[in-house]
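Sequence in, structure out. First:
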Amino acid sequence: MAGSDGPLSGVKVIELAHIMAGPTCGLMLADMGADVIKVEKVPGGDDSRRFLPPDIGGEAAAFMMMNRNKRGIAVNLKDDAGKEVLKRLLKTADAVIENYRIDTMDKLGLGYDVLRQENPGLIYCAISGFGRTGPYAERGGFDLIAQGMSGLMSITGEGGDRPPVKMGAPVTDITAGILGAMAVAAAYVHKLKTGEGQKIDTSLFEAGIVHTYWQSAIGLATGVAPGPMGSAHPLNAPYQAFQTEDGWITLGAANQKNWLRMLEVIEAPELAEDDRFKKNTGRMAHLRELEDLLTPIFLKHTTEDWLARLEAAGVPAGPVLNVNEMHQDPHTLARDMVVDLPHKKLGTVKSIGLPVKFSKTPGRVATGAPVYGHHTREVLAEYGYDDKEIDGLIAKGAVAAAD
């Protein structure tokens, strides 16, 4: 059985989710030890199984990334027998995750008000585009839409007359999943105290909004909406990327101590006495002029040279790596953020590791993503179905199994 390690060991989670936000929530809980059973639709399974290319041996890389560490079953929720299978799983579950539209579960007869009658301790986590209340509750939502409406696209990019730019990663999907996992863990604490479950409601829209803390602080304080600043910071300078002789570095010389240390490293002590740059308020007011002065200086030496000098002086800085370079970075590997996992079909696959380390209850990424219907027989047997019943369910199309 999955979920044998970690602080959430023993917690039973049913994941009725697809593509990214809900599966992110499930993988976070699974990495922390929960037994997460992913319920995929019949036919076809999670839509991310068809996010191709790339694939590895016919298995979608995107699906495998989001669903490692879970057990997988395939259930036809349009079939009454399939619904009964799911109801049996949910009757003893600690939590269920779903990211359907607002009325989907109710139409299936599996809404929260129904499920809690059978299982008062059930934690029901609903992740959607805009949440379950408000004027947009019935809208479908995608990361791109949420990034635009939450303000994120208005603060991303280089500014000027350039087109709107979304963040490269689907941050609202991922963040909504993380918020959901945090909420499930918090609700589980409440359940341990009282025995009560509850409904959790979060959204991609709100996940986008929480990334605007600094910009919202500025907007709420001044009435002026901040715009995009490239890699620069809206409150501190210099805190951005600079081009070097052979690449790019990021530089965090924003506070006064690091500003003065940086001036020593770049051998420009005269800037410390320049009235425009003496304090952070001036550096922000004259940011473009400061960039114009610093850019030719950093172009004089290589990335490696600058990083060595800045590190020796105690100035925070780093290289700008591409994703493959990040995977190979020694610190990435030392922190177990790229791991090898066993996979039923492919032997061994690589995945991203657990980003939180626990000293007493270490979680782990232990298994590759399930193939379609991978654990259907195993899970149904655990929940009281005998071989003949399972064969009958498969024959009528209520469930699907890998074999």
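Second:
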Amino acid sequence: METYRIPLDAIGMASTTPEPGEPPGAGAEGGDRLPVIEVLAEIASSMSAEADTEQMLMRFLEIMVRISRAKAGAVRVLTADGAHLRMVGSIGLSPALVEKERYVPLECGICGKATLTQSSQSESVMEVCQKQVRHIYFAQHCSTVYAVPLRYKGKVMGVYNIFLDNPEPLPRDIRTLFNSISEHLGMALENTRLTRENMRISLMNERTMLANQIHDSLAQTLAYAKMRLSVLNEAFADGDQDRANRYLGDVEEAVDMAYSELRNLITQFRDRIDPRGLVPALQEMAESFSKKANADVDFLNVAQDVVLTPEEEIQVFHIIQEALYNICKHSRARHVVVTLDLHEKQYVVNVADDGVGLVSHATTDMGKSFGLTIMRERAAKLGGRLTIESRPAGGTIVRLSFPARQGIEEKS
């Protein structure tokens, strides 16, 4: 991954010269420093809007270098193995030093001390830096290094390094501000880690679901075709033309079914939920299935508000999607209505059609259908229940009901 390196003159280092009429030292102490409240507001804004965590870390490194009058600075994050610190970027450091310090052991020098104690540290470059890089720091006129750990809930996720050209300690207000920055950015790093972790879990769950669906639909159909080919060969060997023709018809039917199932699987997993949320996604799905099924598909949202987590939206979306696929494949319906309601703190989804309805053998086959099994598994993840009923006027109703999250009010 590319390491950011920004020269000092690119960030507009503030002058230490006081403005006319100010007492000596006023410029150095805060006349042109960013007010603390502005820095904290910038952190809050970045945590809610910043897409790239490393860019956010670099932006605050610029601020820390500026307000501390530092000669240079660097920001490092903990690697996946938890044993090293990787340099995300730097300001004012030479390319040679950046290359040497790209990865350092977690326990190395002042960074290791700050990580172990979970508190800011400052030492002379002579005392804390490795021998092979000391001369590079001195060539850049760095004499003191500060290490500010990025921490959250007792865990260190990285370290800021600030390099100064004098041994004077940083003012207390700046140290306090740096500690506040480190805590907020530590939270941002932890949130990023959790987001990546949740994305991995969701991806693995969907892949497992896809693998199961392929195994129990397409794979079973192909296994049936393979068995029929075996008995077809026996029929040919026995010279039984009638039996051979029958088995050949079975194989052709199985291949046609496998092809149809494969197309359905490809179509299903190409369909993605609308990023605007579940309701727009269902509206779009209804329009799409109206064309595919040669039937009128209407979607009615009668809930006052639909407040679901992204994971819940995905489960509901795929349940309705599978119900519509089954209608398209089996029911010969001319009209389908999908409704979403909120009643007695339960979301209720109905997919009703006017097709051929359920008959005894169809009910048995449907009970064994893997598509239905997947739908019920998704309903269970919602803490809900899935049922299939016959309509008095003909056709079927697929009904999903699951509890609304606490705090959701149904419409009066």
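Remark: The longest strand covers residues 155-164.
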